UniProtKB/TrEMBL annotation, chain A:
Protein name: ATP-citrate synthase/succinyl-CoA ligase C-terminal domain-containing protein
Source organism: Candidatus Kaiserbacteria bacterium RIFCSPLOWO2_01_FULL_53_17
Subcellular localization, as worded in the UniProt entry: Cytoplasm
Keyword line: Cytoplasm, Lipid biosynthesis, Lipid metabolism
Pfam families (UniProt xref): Citrate_synt, Ligase_CoA
Entry keyword Lipid metabolism: yes
Record domain ATP-citrate synthase/succinyl-CoA ligase C-terminal: where: 175-299
Automatic annotation (TrEMBL), chain B:
Gene Ontology MF, one: ATP binding
Predominant localisation class: cytoplasm
Originating organism: Candidatus Kaiserbacteria bacterium RIFCSPLOWO2_01_FULL_53_17
Domain ATP-citrate synthase citrate-binding: 208-383
Any Pfam family: Citrate_synth_N
Sequence intervals crossing the membrane: none
GO-annotated cellular components: cytoplasm
Matches recorded under InterPro entries: Citrate-bd, Citrate_synth_N, Succinyl-CoA_synth-like
Domain of life: Bacteria
Protein name according to UniProt: Uncharacterized protein
Subcellular location as annotated: Cytoplasm
All residue ranges annotated as the ATP-citrate synthase ATP-grasp domain in the record: 35-193
Translocase keyword on record: no
Length: 596, 387
């Protein structure tokens, strides 16, 4: 079996069997509070999802999930030292055996379930009792302040980790069968101005894998531990193990114990208390008898809990230097509701035209064929091909925030297939999202044909607060240009005449005079330039342009590349697989319906 | 999780299979009993020392058995067993028990059995079964039939027995016949075996209705909810959390000499939901309101527990407040005060919620968080009810 000192010496890592986000988050908070560089939870075994979103400090992280221990990637295997088994009592045995079969070098673990059959527990003792360090079945786990938190032990909110000073290494070992009292004693140690060396909750089950004797010997052999704080209850004979160790001088460190259960004396019949062990069968299992035996062997076993705490405050302690826990890092953390990858780098917009010449980007047969298919004629100019390629490249994705991408991701998380998820995204394209290219083309055509000046055109078209397609952006404004617009605007330099583009720019001048955010947007710019290129490079007539507008051709320029982006988001969701999406309550305002 | 008694009938049916000819008789069920023969009638409700209490009748006719059942029914028993009489000499009686222990199965055997076995501990041989091979060795030295022992231990293991006592056990050559059997099974094994079910578990003495309510509620949640009614006219009522912490708090009452004033003992833990905590609290408030302490004494509710690891203080306190608000007027009229000490996740918000409510409803005795000793609330409550 490993020693407590080994655990302190190098970073520890945990594989969680089952899904208990609150306990996992508390472990990550403990790690962060201890200023660990890496979180100790490295993966989770759970069905129906491939990742679980948690925080490491303020930063969100995805813990990878696997359906089975055998599916944990080979490269993670050697890193896994601890098992945290939060599965039900029905599955605890088989999953523990599967864990140690898969990771025979692991040091031990904690089994959280309370209803593990006795027979399974004794089987686990036979298999692992000698070599592995296993807290439970039942209880709240193992804690080595500053180094390892394996389970709910010490609490699940950061305020508890702070109040109990769990980031600070100390000198008092806390041992108990009761999960709640383990934590009560951990806090009591901090309140007494001392710190915990390690703590293990043995659990209230009849057959804990690592026994009380094992734990006491770990404490005896731990150079950092100077005293042992023990909480026991009436029933069972565990405390006689302490007595024997003290008598045999195998345990020489100070033992301060509180044995609860004198309440039993107030009632004729023995009551079943909180734990299975607390059913008194013989006289010597009473709280009073066990206190007496402990005292006779040299331990301190006060009669009341306040006296016990007074004794605790008298225990020797070492000099304490508390690590300051950056509490602000844990405040106001708001979990994002979707996670995705950056599909394209939005900050890295390529150069398409340099010194009035196309930058050669190689022959693109697909774009040529696609354009010829859409337009129904042979493409004459390289400029047309290069422009379409530029547009396709720029519009593949615009991040995971936009409506279409969100709908694609939510549909994917509902377990739907590629085509359904893509369709959900595509069906979102319309007047407010992505579907304004064609409208912009119609606007510029109308403007050029009407021969109106931009100012009166704008005045006429925006009467009654109407919006102009191709104008306006939520993020970019005058002074913060849209890099995508800048990139495609380069194509204007390749054209002799560009009536649509010039008109669009003239309109922009008018609108930005009113509001800096009413700039020519990417829909407007690409519509204008494509119109000009079709006229100059491909010889399109006014009538032919109108046919394309009527057939909504210009929206295809968005739909084609964005389909790729939606599919990329879909694939990313399937990889993450965080389970069914549900909007958190705090993100939804629900108004009461009126009663009739 | 815990060891529970199953009926002698079920235990023997598992051990002996079809060879067992006993008849299980429930007080209200119509059962065709045999007309003649010699029989043994017993109460089958896990009662200890049945013979000494007169709850066994040996060598009787079926008619006499019926009369015995009627007599026991009057004493409040409802589950009986009728078995064919096995004629034997007293010296044929042996003692055998099996218990699951950390190292395997502990076997106690004595070639002299009978009801007085406890007064002759020196005749009892102790063995430990760690593996299959141990069984042959034990059969040899105990002279118990090996086939019987092997099958018995297989059943014990497969069917999640925790303890089994066969006393007396009649051994004749290769045959072994248990006359009486007492068995505890591991309730956590219920999911894994078909040999016994919940209906075979022996129900204890008649419970207080509130205990039945909480037991039914506990069966529907992974959280732990326990209740024992101790004194229906007590003055201290407990709404405690955590198995260990609840005992520490109850101990304090006993040490302060207020043990007899405790109305109930119990605990909730393991992260019950707001709704589950509401239902649990409601039952305890009902007990408190119904209680009539001697000489019109005062009553207090103690909501206390240790520093929880993962049970959310705010959520569980919200459930308690839900229950308290339903009876706030009745509690105030009776002059009940509420004393609180609790720590754990969302401690500050949970305590604030409780304090605000108790103040508004004029029910506040005192309220403390994890920076104050766990026993403080109960101490305050004792001062309040004894002053």
């Amino acid at each position: 079996m490993t020693s407590i000192e080994t655990i302190r010496k190098k970073p520890q890592s945990i594989l969680v069997l089952g899904n208990h986000p609150a306990i996992m988050q508390s472990i990550l908070d403990f790690d962060f509070a201890c200023r660990k560089k890496e979180p100790s939870v490295i993966a989770c075994i759970t069905a129906n999802r491939k990742s679980l979103k948690l925080f490491f400090g303020k930063q969100e992280m995805l813990v990878p999930c696997f359906s089975d221990v055998t599916r944990v990637p080979k490269e993670l295997g050697p890193k896994i030292q601890w098992m945290l088994n939060v599965q039900s009592g029905r599955r605890a045995y088989e999953s523990t055996v599967a864990f140690f079969d898969a990771f025979p070098k692991a040091l031990g673990g904690h089994i959280f379930a309370e209803n593990v059959p006795e027979q399974h527990a004794t089987e686990l003792i036979q298999r692992y009792g000698k070599e592995k360090f296993i807290a439970g079945p039942s209880g709240v786990g193992l804690l080595v302040p500053g180094s390892l938190k394996l389970g709910a032990i010490g609490g699940t909110d950061i305020a508890q980790i702070e109040a109990s000073k769990l980031a600070t290494k100390g000198s008092i070992a806390v041992v108990s069968t009761s999960g709640g009292m383990t934590n009560e004693l951990i806090r009591a140690v901090a309140l007494a101005g001392k710190r915990v060396s390690f703590s293990l909750c043995i659990g209230g089950d009849r057959f804990p894998v690592t026994s009380l004797t094992d734990v006491l010997l770990l404490a005896e052999n731990d150079p950092k531990t100077s005293a042992i704080l023990y909480f026991g209850e009436l029933g069972g004979v565990d405390e006689y193990e302490i007595v024997e160790l003290l008598r045999a001088k195998k345990l020489t460190k100070l033992v301060l114990a509180y044995i609860a259960g004198v309440i039993d004396e107030a009632f004729g019949e023995h009551m079943q208390f909180g734990h299975a062990k607390a059913l008194v069968a013989h006289k010597d299992e009473s709280a009073r008898a066990k206190r007496g035996a402990l005292r006779a062997a040299g331990a301190s076993a006060p009669d009341t809990f306040p006296e016990f705490l007074a004794e605790l405050s008298k225990l020797p302690s070492t000099e304490i230097r508390d690590r300051v826990i950056p509490m602000s890092e844990f405040e106001n953390r708001q979990k994002s509701i979707l996670s995705t990858r950056q599909i394209v780098d939005l900050d890295d917009v390529p150069v398409f035209v340099k010194g009035k010449k196309l930058v050669s980007r190689g022959e693109n047969a697909f774009v040529r064929k696609a354009l010829e298919a859409l337009l129904g004629r042979e493409i004459k100019s390289e400029i047309t091909i290069a422009f379409a390629e530029a547009v396709f490249e720029l519009l593949i994705d615009h991040g995971g925030n936009v409506s279409g991408a969100v709908n694609t991701m939510i549909t994917a998380r509902a377990g739907k297939d590629l085509v359904s998820s893509l369709a959900a995204g595509l069906l979102t394209i319309g007047p407010r999202f992505g579907g304004a290219v064609n409208d912009a083309a119609a606007t510029w055509t109308l403007g050029v044909q009407s021969k109106q000046d931009a100012r009166s055109f704008v005045q006429e078209r925006t009467k009654g607060g109407k919006l102009l397609s191709g104008i306006g952006h939520r993020k970019y404004r005058v002074g913060i240009p849209d890099p995508r617009v800048e990139a495609i605007a380069q194509f204007a330099a390749l054209l002799k005449k560009r009536p649509h583009y010039d008109f669009a720019r003239a309109v922009e001048k008018v609108t930005t005079g009113k509001n800096g955010s009413l700039i020519l947007n990417v829909d407007g710019a690409m519509a204008a330039l494509f119109l000009d290129i079709l006229v100059e490079a491909e010889g399109y007539t006014e009538t032919e342009l109108q046919e394309l507008i009527d057939a909504e051709f210009f929206n295809a320029l968005f739909v084609i590349p964005r389909s790729v982006g939606f599919i990329a988001h879909f694939i990313e969701q399937k990889k993450n697989d965080e389970g069914l999406f549900r909007l958190p309550d705090e993100l939804l305002y629900v108004r009461k319906s009126k009663k009739s | 999780m815990s060891r529970v008694k199953i009926s002698e009938y079920r235990a023997k049916k598992i051990i002996l299979g079809d060879a067992y000819k006993g008849i299980s008789v429930h007080v209200d069920a119509k059962i065709k009993l045999p007309k003649k023969g010699k029989w043994v009638a017993k109460v089958d409700q896990g009662v200890k020392k049945r013979m000494k209490q007169g709850l066994v009748a040996v060598d009787i006719s079926p008619q006499a058995a019926m009369r015995a059942f009627a007599k026991w029914k009057k004493k409040g028993f409802s589950q009986f067993l009728l078995e064919p009489l096995v004629k034997h000499a007293p010296e044929e009686e042996q003692y055998l028990s099996l218990e699951r222990v950390r190292e395997g199965i502990r076997v106690l055997h004595a070639r002299e059995g009978g009801i007085d076995i406890e007064s002759n501990p020196e005749v009892v041989q102790k063995y430990l079964i760690r593996n299959e091979e141990d069984i042959a060795t034990i059969a040899k030295s105990s002279k118990l039939p090996e086939k019987f022992l092997r099958e018995l231990i297989a059943k014990f293991d497969e069917d999640f027995f925790a303890f089994l006592e066969l006393n007396p056990l009649i051994v004749r050559g290769n045959e072994a016949k248990p006359l009486d059997a007492a068995a505890l099974v591991d309730s956590a094994g219920a999911f894994f075996t078909r040999a016994w079910t919940d209906s075979d578990i022996v129900k204890g003495a008649a419970k207080h209705p509130s205990e039945g309510v909480i037991e039914a509620l506990a069966a529907t949640t992974p959280a732990s909810l326990k209740l024992n009614v101790l004194n229906t006219n007590g003055s201290l009522f407990f709404l405690l959390s955590g198995g260990g912490g609840s005992i520490v708090i109850a101990d304090e009452a006993q040490l302060e000499g207020a043990g007899k004033r405790i109305g109930n003992y119990g605990e909730y833990s393991g992260g019950p939901t707001r709704q589950e905590t509401y239902l649990y609290a409601k039952e305890i408030i009902k007990l408190l309101l119904a209680s009539r302490p001697p000489a019109g004494g005062k009553k207090a509710l103690v909501i206390a527990g240790g520093v929880a690891n993962f049970t959310d203080v705010k959520k569980t306190f919200a459930g308690i407040v839900d229950a308290l608000s339903e009876s706030a007027d009745a509690l105030r009229v009776k002059g009940v005060k509420v004393f609180v000490r609790r720590g754990g996740p969302n401690e500050v918000a949970g305590l604030a919620l409780m304090q605000e409510f108790l103040k508004r409803e004029k029910l506040l005795g005192s309220i403390y968080g994890s920076d104050v000793v766990i026993t403080k609330a109960v101490e305050d409550a004792i001062t309040f009810v004894t002053r």
